[in-house]
């Protein structure tokens, strides 16, 4: 914190935790670290507790939190992949997120319990908690979160920051036009001097989920079957494009559609991560055909090369009026003219979809053709895919470990005195 | 250092510095070899030979390798040159906070408790405040209600006068939407009024100049205009931008052409003035010395006429400049006068100075050959002088000739341009300015040079 010669260095860590709840996953970890401790899927399996897992699947009940009463309809919550990705009869998959904010608070509480007991493994009373939020989070949702943290978890301090602001910080900017291409939506938010301009923020429902849905359509139209990976007992090695030969597992009866769909969605996402690629300019059959294909093997054993399809698939992310370039332009033009040069000069990209190969280059190219030529345009993003995906969390990690930030927290004393009404003032 | 201490038998202070030795031997006190007991060097034995003898402790060396001694691995490695100092997870309060909340952080156990160092960065903009009555007395406005003004001042405080953010967070549900300029205007107005009626000097809007309060005046109309222009600048369409680019490129081309033309005119002016200064002295000075052929004089005057014409032409294009551009500067060839001290060959004086280019030198030599003059004559005093003058005049003549040719060329080019732009018409150039190329060529070069010669050439006779 301070050096031998009285120099003051920027950091002062106070054991704070950073939570970044997203549609795809929740990131949680200690401030001052460079990656989150855990990246937990943002869905929770809810099933009857009466079920006794098969012998081979029996794990010490580590990751399972129990709730309900001992009598009758006991419910168990299955969190994180090791628990969630196990086929269990009557386990419904539910999410606590809706439209970028937390909606189902009971479920979210289960998630927080899991974070504190299994990830952090330290009492919540010891750690100030910094949460990220979407720009358009409503006031009741924000206040509910503060209430939860202070009253249920006894957090010593709490703070809420807009994830766009944090993504800008993670890229070393306090003024930036942040494009966040997440799972459920893509948004563009101008950030000026560390404050998000709420009224200029724009978003569209095109994101990673949309891409996965497109992948599903594409594979259907190519008559390629995506078998659930958990249903395969064994498969034979076959030649490319040959009919798959596999044997199926006997699965427990009563697998819920929500769980099956969730599992399939993960597989389509995996397919996208492996093969999807964004072409530098608008899709063109001939240029795409020149690029060597990428091989992908499906769970059933069927495998083939994907060539131009890789590029065709991602075109849905750059649709005229829904794609990221359009959003950036709309957000910039909604800003005051004085702020625009600085915003165009630092367009910051983050979010999981921004980690797609070629995505950033395409964005830069499209912006260059759309941005007013009187501005100097510069597009930034962290170099590694993980850093792009975790940009908001990393920004939170930086912020919460800065010495001069420590005066910003809403402490539990302040909460006791001022109530949740002060949230609007203290966390702009 | 240790060696010297050893030699002088000085007890070492227990080292807090980590050395390689103390890492290897750990904290164990260094075993002092007892050298006192050792046998003295026998008389007559060389020191070097004696040094080869084994005499550590007088023990026999071990017969088998042993591993009971302390090796590297049993020792704790010490990193850094000092002993590690302890850190503790300690509570602290932050004076920048109003609530005395206690947080914990790591600090050195030895560091005494002092004020939280980051508190010094807690800086706030001070915003003027007013009471209800002050508002009613001074700040009432047709356009702004008190609630709205309060809201503005509150936002100013919260966002430290970042008006872009203030505008963004403006409560549009409660109050009507206002532009940033409106907000700024109201805020600075209030600052101005309050700084006049109240004594507390706050923030940056009031500066004291010679004990007199200066209030920052915000020119809202100007700002509105500026922003409007900025917006228009940013919202130009691609066609507009392209057109502007095209026009700029055109303008640049035109300017380049103009500059080129001016340069040429100036060159010409220089030459003319040179020639003129030559002939002027010729007229005013000893006229009796003028070359004997009257035809030459007539020729000369005609040439002069023509030059004046040209001068007029060019001065019509750029009247002011052309007149100013007349620089009376002699640029035949300037031969350096005096050499350094000591003996030197006179032929040195006939060497062309380095400023004369290769091409000019060649051309002069060519002319000399045409006149069948030796290009390296015997350098008597007189020959030297006249030969130099001759070459100087030749150089000028060549320049003039070139200038004439380029003018001629330009004239023709302009005529072609004129005819191209006005098809059907022809431009007849009056013969007075048209160079009937026979004119110069037919004349023996020597004659021209005689006439236009330098003053010194006129005054001097061989
Ligand atoms: N390496 C990758 N390549 C392509 N897409 C990815 C990659 N990693 C994650 N994604 C996609 O990004 C989305 C998650 O982005 P994220 O920013 O974490 O969303 P959220 O903040 O809503 O949780 C998912 O749809 C996922 O499929
Ligand atoms: Mg996100």
From TrEMBL, chain A:
Listed Gene3D superfamilies: 3.30.420.40, Actin, Chain A, domain 2 (2.30.36.70), Actin, Chain A, domain 4 (3.90.640.10)
Pfam families per UniProt: Actin
Entries under InterPro entries matching the protein: Actin, ATPase_NBD
Ranges that cross the membrane: none
Family matches, as SMART domains: ACTIN (SM00268)
Family: Belongs to the actin family.
Protein name: Actin-like protein 6A
TrEMBL record, chain B:
Species: Leptosia nina
Keyword set, alphabetical order: Chromatin regulator, Nucleus, Transcription, Transcription regulation
InterPro entries: DAMP1_SANT-like, DMAP1, Swc4/Dmap1
The organism's place on the tree of life at top rank: Eukaryota
Residues annotated as domain DNA methyltransferase 1-associated: 243-427
Classification via PANTHER family: DNA METHYLTRANSFERASE 1-ASSOCIATED PROTEIN 1 (PTHR12855:SF10), DNA METHYLTRANSFERASE 1-ASSOCIATED PROTEIN 1 FAMILY MEMBER (PTHR12855)
Biased composition (Basic and acidic residues): 258-267
Bilayer-spanning residue ranges: none
GO cellular component, one term: NuA4 histone acetyltransferase complex
Compositionally skewed regions (Basic residues) per UniProt: 301-313
Positions with biased composition (Polar residues): 289-299
GO biological process, one term: DNA repair
All copies of domain DAMP1 SANT/Myb-like, residue ranges: 116-194
Subcellular location: Nucleus
Biased composition (Low complexity): 277-288
Gene3D superfamilies documented for this protein: Homeodomain-like
Protein name (database record): DNA methyltransferase 1-associated protein 1
GO molecular function, one term: transcription corepressor activity
Region (Disordered): 258-318
């Amino acid at each position: 914190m301070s050096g031998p010669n009285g120099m003051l260095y920027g950091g002062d860590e106070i054991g704070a935790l950073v939570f970044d709840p997203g549609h795809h996953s929740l990131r949680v970890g200690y401030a001052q670290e460079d990656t989150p401790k855990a990246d937990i899927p943002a869905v929770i399996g809810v099933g009857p507790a009466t079920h006794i897992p098969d012998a081979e699947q029996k794990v010490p009940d580590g990751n399972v939190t129990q709730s309900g009463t001992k009598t009758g309809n006991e419910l168990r919550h299955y969190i994180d992949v090791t628990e969630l990705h196990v086929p269990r009869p009557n386990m419904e998959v539910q999410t606590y997120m809706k439209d970028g904010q937390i909606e189902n608070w009971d479920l979210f509480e289960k998630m927080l319990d899991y974070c504190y007991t299994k990830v952090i493994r330290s009492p919540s009373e010891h750690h100030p908690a910094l949460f990220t939020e979407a720009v358009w989070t409503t006031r009741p949702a924000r206040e509910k979160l503060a209430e939860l943290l202070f009253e249920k978890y006894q957090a010593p301090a709490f703070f809420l920051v807009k994830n766009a602001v944090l993504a800008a910080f993670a890229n070393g900017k306090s003024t930036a036009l942040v494009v966040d291409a997440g799972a459920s939506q893509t948004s563009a938010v101008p950030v000026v001097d560390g404050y998000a301009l709420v009224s200029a923020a724009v978003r569209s429902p095109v994101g990673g989920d949309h891409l996965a849905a497109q992948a599903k359509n594409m594979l259907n139209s190519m008559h390629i079957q995506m078998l659930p990976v958990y249903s395969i007992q064994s498969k034979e090695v076959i030649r490319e494009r040959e009919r798959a030969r596999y044997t199926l597992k006997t699965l427990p009866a009563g697998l819920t559609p929500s769980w099956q769909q969730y599992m399939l969605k993960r597989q389509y996402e995996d397919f996208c991560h492996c093969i999807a690629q964004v072409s530098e300019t608008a899709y063109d059959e001939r240029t795409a055909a020149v690029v060597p294909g990428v091989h992908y093997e499906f769970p059933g054993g069927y495998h083939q090369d994907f060539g131009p399809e890789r590029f065709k698939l991602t075109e849905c992310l750059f649709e005229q009026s829904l794609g990221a370039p359009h959003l950036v332009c709309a957000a910039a033009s909604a800003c005051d003219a004085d702020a625009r040069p600085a915003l165009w000069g630092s367009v910051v990209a983050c979010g999981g979809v921004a980690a797609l190969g070629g995505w950033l280059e395409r964005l830069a190219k499209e912006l260059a053709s759309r941005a007013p030529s009187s501005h100097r345009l510069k597009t930034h993003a962290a170099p590694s895919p993980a850093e792009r995906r975790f940009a908001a969390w990393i920004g939170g990690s930086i912020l919460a470990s800065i010495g001069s930030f420590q005066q910003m927290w809403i402490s539990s004393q302040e909460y006791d005195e001022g109530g949740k009404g002060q949230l609007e003032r203290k966390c702009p | 250092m240790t060696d010297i201490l050893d030699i002088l038998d000085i007890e070492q202070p227990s080292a807090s510095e980590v050395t390689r030795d103390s890492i290897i031997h750990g904290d164990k006190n260094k075993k002092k070899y007892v050298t006192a007991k050792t046998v003295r060097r026998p008389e007559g034995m060389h020191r070097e030979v004696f040094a080869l003898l084994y005499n550590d402790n007088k023990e026999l060396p071990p017969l088998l390798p042993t591993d009971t001694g302390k090796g590297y691995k049993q020792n704790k490695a010490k990193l850094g040159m000092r002993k590690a100092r302890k850190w503790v997870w300690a509570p602290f309060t932050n004076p920048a906070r109003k609530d005395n909340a206690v947080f914990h952080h790591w600090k050195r156990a030895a560091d005494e408790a002092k004020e939280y160092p980051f508190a010094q960065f807690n800086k706030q903009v001070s915003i003027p405040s007013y009471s209800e009555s002050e508002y009613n007395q001074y700040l009432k406005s047709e356009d702004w209600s008190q609630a709205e003004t309060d809201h503005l001042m509150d936002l100013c405080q919260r966002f430290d006068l970042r008006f872009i953010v203030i505008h963004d967070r403006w409560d549009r549900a409660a109050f009507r939407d206002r532009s940033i300029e409106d907000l700024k205007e109201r805020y600075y107005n209030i600052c101005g009024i309050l700084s006049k009626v109240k004594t507390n000097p706050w923030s940056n809007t009031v500066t004291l100049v010679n004990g007199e309060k200066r209030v920052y005046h915000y020119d809202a109309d100007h700002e509105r205009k500026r922003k409007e222009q900025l917006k228009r600048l940013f919202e130009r369409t691609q066609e507009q931008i392209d057109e502007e680019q095209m026009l700029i490129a055109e303008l640049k081309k035109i300017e380049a052409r103009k500059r080129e033309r001016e340069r040429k005119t100036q060159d010409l002016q220089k030459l003319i003035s040179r020639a003129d200064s030559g002939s002027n002295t010729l007229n005013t000075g000893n006229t009796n010395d003028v070359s004997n052929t009257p035809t030459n004089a007539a020729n000369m005057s005609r040439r002069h006429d023509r030059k004046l014409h040209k001068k007029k032409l060019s001065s019509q294009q750029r009247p002011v400049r052309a007149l100013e551009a007349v620089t009376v500067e002699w640029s035949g060839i300037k031969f350096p006068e005096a050499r350094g001290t000591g003996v030197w060959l006179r032929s040195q004086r006939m060497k062309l100075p380095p400023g004369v280019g290769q091409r000019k030198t060649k051309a002069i030599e060519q002319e000399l050959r045409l006149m069948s003059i030796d290009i390296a004559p015997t350098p008597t005093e007189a020959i030297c002088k006249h030969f130099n003058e001759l070459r100087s005049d030749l150089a000028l003549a060549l320049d003039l000739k070139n200038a004439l040719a380029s003018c001629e060329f330009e004239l023709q080019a302009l005529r072609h341009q004129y005819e191209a732009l006005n098809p059907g018409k022809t431009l007849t150039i009056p013969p007075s300015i048209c160079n009937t190329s026979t004119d110069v060529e037919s004349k023996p070069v020597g004659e021209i040079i005689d006439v236009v010669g330098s003053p010194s050439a006129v005054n001097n006779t061989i």
